[in-house]
Design brief:
single chain; 7-stranded mixed β-sheet; 11 strands; 0% helix; globular
Length: 118
């Protein structure tokens, strides 16, 4: 079992920045691909960004390319999402996901609220 806990959400003005963190409970974190997803009220959950277990490859939704950066520190069992130039449409609950396709295991964190508003 892997437990994930997000932090760093909050209220920010348009154009501002936030850094989300997702800490995993086990040291096997390094064998899981990690992702950030978000869900706005009344909308389906959507992929924001993913990163491979080694951190060597990342992928972003078109809506956040150039503004968001995903990274990970396997020594700290933590994945980050640096969000810059935030827009009101970025408002959502952001959740992190850990997946290992070989082991067929996947885990979700409870999420953290990000609100972009003036």
């Amino acid at each position: 079992q892997v437990q994930l806990v997000e932090s760093g959400g909050g209220l920010v003005q348009p154009g501002g920045s936030l850094r989300l963190s997702c800490a995993a409970s086990r040291s096997i974190f390094s064998i899981y691909a990690m992702g950030w997803y978000r869900q706005a009220p009344g909308k389906q959950r959507e992929l924001v960004a993913t990163i491979t277990p080694s951190g060597g490859s990342t992928n972003y939704a078109d809506s956040v390319k150039g503004r968001f950066t995903i990274s990970r520190d396997n020594a700290k069992n933590t994945v980050y999402l640096q969000m810059n130039s935030l827009k009101p449409e970025d408002t959502a609950v952001y959740s992190c996901n850990a997946v290992n396709y070989i082991l067929s295991m996947a885990y979700w964190g409870p999420g953290t609220q990000v609100t972009v508003s003036s």
